Amino acid sequence: MDTQATAIGDLLARPAAAATTAPAPAPTRQPGYLFGPVTDFLCLGGSSLLLLPFLYLLPEARFGAPIATAMLLLANLVNHPHFAHSYQIFYRGFAGKAFGGTLGREMQARYLFAGLIGPALLAAFLAWGALAADTRLLGYGANIMGLAVGWHYAKQGYGMLMVDAALKRRFLDERTKKVLVANCYAVWLAGWVGLNIAVNKEDLWGLAYYSFALPQPLYVLTVIAAIATTAASLWVLAMHWKAKGTLPVNGVVAYGVSLYLWLLFVTINPLWGLVVPALHSLQYLTVVWRYQLNYERAQLASDDYRKGSLVRAVFGANPAGHMAAFVLTGAVLGYLGFWGIPILAEGLVPYDRQAIAGALFLFVFWIFINIHHYLLDNVMWRRENPDTRLYLFG
Fold first, then answer.
1. Residue 31's closest CA among 201, 147, 170?
2. In the chain, which residue ranges form alpha helices assigned H by DSSP?
3. Separation of alpha carbons 372 and 226, rounded Å
4. For residue range 108-125, what is the model confidence (pLDDT) as tens digits?
5. Collapsing DSSP states into helix, strand and coil, what is residue 209?
6. Contacts of 66 (CB under 8 A, 6+ apart)
7. Considering the entire predicted model, what is its pTM?
8. Where are the domains of the chain?
9. Residue 44 has what DSSP assignment?
């Protein structure tokens, strides 16, 4: 299956030495972990097992508004930078990747589509809906965003399992991986179909989010498929444990939490739904920050890296300083993409405010970034991308 989930699984099941470029200097971390056993457990998904019971004890009427406010503020430090980091990594050296021909035709085509064609088509779709004041069309765009985000959650959970398995050299066999990927599809579809049936219309920044009129029997079928593949997943993992005597525990936790607590049962508690996006983003940041640290160490081995730049002048050859600049840049870009630019455009760009009563630019920017993020990740974390293997495990 040509998807990010299966591709990253194949990629991470291979040793890092398979990369075609020079390896990065060894990062300072405990072998077998991105950062360490406790940090990996908590950041990849284990913190959800601690937070959910706690949130159940809190009365929604009293704590709903404060938690929602806290999560909105936290989004500027966690959620929005996690989107920005995908842009920072994807478009770094983009011209060479998309037009240089060094990655092969297939990867070159993927970079061109995700980096240029896909976002152009998406922007045209959203612009058409805005210019035509077609709020229903824009609302369906938000539904498509939900479809893409759900699949992103599922694939990322599977990717975390493959990362942990590769780091610990506890590789899963092909049958087990295929069953786990099939479960990702089934749980994702059950969650999305169920949401469309349960919710007819919601609001995002004052604009309606319309559901698709899906038949009830389809929901029944997707739930049955989710139950069946969940049972099959538990069975293949148990067989792997029986045969090998071990499992990548942090990865299994990340997989289970991503699919069930963050996706299928995200509405199990109103307060829980408020914190899930931050937990998902933290999971992503844990991998991206390890990747970027390895990248900085590798690049700083060359005296010419960022020669003459302000970052190099300030931080010299200190990878922690360069990493801090990367994180700060992500925070600034995240703020601009989700708040700064759309709010500025809202005040400067005219549109039919009677037909479109909500905050149009906040609406379309949030949809665009969420869907485009999915397209970027589907290229960045593939086995054909040599940078991923090199810098994630370097």
1. 170
2. 4-12, 37-41, 47-56, 60-74, 79-90, 94-99, 105-112, 118-131, 135-167, 174-198, 216-244, 249-256, 270-300, 310-315, 319-335, 341-348, 360-380, 386-393
3. 27
4. 999 999 999 999 999 999
5. strand
6. none
7. 0.87
8. 4-393
9. I
